[in-house]
C-alpha cells in the first residue's frame, strides 16, 4: 500500500504529473475574480470565503480524471487488480494520493489567496479548518466518479457532471463555515456537518468505488 | 498447486466467444494457447486471472498464486526501470529485483526512464515483473510481441526456470517459443456456436 502511495506521489512530482495543476488553477480563479467583480474591497471581503471554496472545488475537479485514467491506459490497473492489494485499499490509496497532491496544497495555499481577496484575518482559521476537513471528501467522492468513468474516452465531462451534485453538500457547509468565521459568528454547526459528511464518505465510498472499478475492468 | 478449468463458457461484450473449455495443469506444466485472432484467447486469460466472471463453468485457482500479464505492460514512462520494477516487487511483498534485472538483461538500463526504452526493452521490463512477483501461476497474453530472437530465448529460459521451480504457465502466443515440454491447446474447436434463438425482441412479440 505504501509502495503505491510512494509511486503515485513520485509520478505526480515528475514532469507531466500535474502536481501544480490544481494550485495554478486556484491561483487563476482567485486573481481573476477581483477583475471581474471590481475593486471594492468590502465586496471582495464578503464574497471571499465562497470564492475560495469554489476555486478549491473546481481545482480539485480538474485533476480527477487522472486518478485512474493513466493507470488504465498503460495497463497498470489490470495488474494492480490482480495484485495482493484489495480493490478497496487501492481506491483508498488513490484517493489519499489525490488529496496529498491536490487537496493539501490548496489548504496550505488558501491563506495567501485569502489575502488577495481581502478576507478579514479572523476568518483565516475557520477557512483553513473547513478546507482541511472538506477537501478529503472532495477527493474520495472524486475517486468514486473516476472509477465510474474509467475506460471511457474523454470521460472528463461525464465525470464532472456525475461528481458535481455530490460535491454540493460539502461546498454548502464548507463555504458556510468559512463565511461564518469571516463574519465572526459561531461555526460549530457547519463544522460538525462538514466533518460528518467527510467521515461518511471516507467510510462508505471506497466500497462503492471498488465495486464499480471491478465492473469497469471486465 | 494447480489450475483447473472445467466446462468454461466465456463472453466478450455480451457475445459468447468460447464454450465447453476444460483443461487442468499441475506444477511444472505449461499450456500454450493457440487460435486465430478474435477467437477469445485474451478473454479466456482475463477470466482465468479473475478480471471478469465466466458465463458458466469454473476456474479453480489457489488464492494469491496468480500473476497476469496482458498486452500493456503497466510501465510508467517517468519512472526509471529500477523504480518500475521495484514498485511491482513491493506491491507483491518482495524487495529483491536483481535476479529479474539480470534474467532479462535490464541491469545496464536500470537508471533510464522507462519512457526512453524501445518497445522490446519495455516488453522485457514487463516480463521481468513476473519474476519479482514470486507468484506460481503465470497467465501471459502474447508475451513475445516486439521481442527479438535473443529476447524470446531469454523469455523461454525464464519460463523453463519457472516451471522447474514448480510453477506453471498459461501462454497465448502465435510464435514457437521452443518450449518442447509445453502442452498445446488450440481453442479454435471450442468457438461458441451462435445462439439460434437469441431473439430478445421476439419474446415480446
Features:
heterodimer; A: 218 residues; mainly alpha; elongated; B: 205 residues; alpha/beta; Rossmann fold; five-stranded parallel sheet; three-stranded antiparallel sheet; 5 helices; 8 strands
Chain pair forming the biggest interface: A-B, 26 and 29 residues
How are helices and strands ordered from N to C of chain B? EEEHEEHHHEHEE
- Report mean pLDDT of chain B, rounded to a whole number: 86
Taken together, the total number of domains of chain B comes to: 1
N- to C-terminal separation of chain A?
23 Å
CA-based gyration radius of chain A: 18 Å
Question: Which radius of gyration of chain B do the C-alpha atoms yield?
Answer: 18 Å
Distance between the termini of chain B: 52 Å
Q: How many beta-strand segments of chain B?
A: 8
How many strand segments of chain A? 0
Q: Which consecutive residue ranges of chain A, at least 5 long each, have pLDDT under 50?
A: none
How many domains of chain A? The number is: 1
- Which structural class do you get from the secondary structure elements of chain A? mainly alpha
Mean pLDDT of chain A: 89
Overall outline of chain B? globular
Secondary-structure arrangement, i.e. CATH architecture of chain B? 3-Layer(aba) Sandwich
Task: Describe what this molecule looks like in 3D.
The complex is a heterodimer of chains A (218) and B (205). Chain A contains nine helices and no strands. Chain A is mostly helical. Chain A has one domain (2-217). The longest helix of chain A is centred in the middle third of the chain and has 30 residues, at 87-116. Chain B is an alpha/beta fold and 205 residues long. Chain B has a single domain, classed as 3-Layer(aba) Sandwich (Rossmann fold), CATH 3.40.50. Chain B has five helices and eight strands. In chain B, helix 5 links the parallel strand 6 and strand 7 (168-172). The longest helix of chain B has 16 residues, at 149-164. Chain B starts with a strand and ends in a 19-residue tail after the last strand. The mean pLDDT of chain B is 86. Chain A binds chain B through residues 2-4, 6-7, 10-11, 14-17, 71, 73-76, 78-85, 217-218, and chain B through 46, 49-53, 64, 66-76, 78-79, 83, 87-88, 90-93, 129, 133. Chain B: Keywords: ATP-binding, Cytochrome c-type biogenesis, Membrane, Nucleotide-binding, Translocase, Transport. Chain B: It comes from Roseovarius lutimaris.
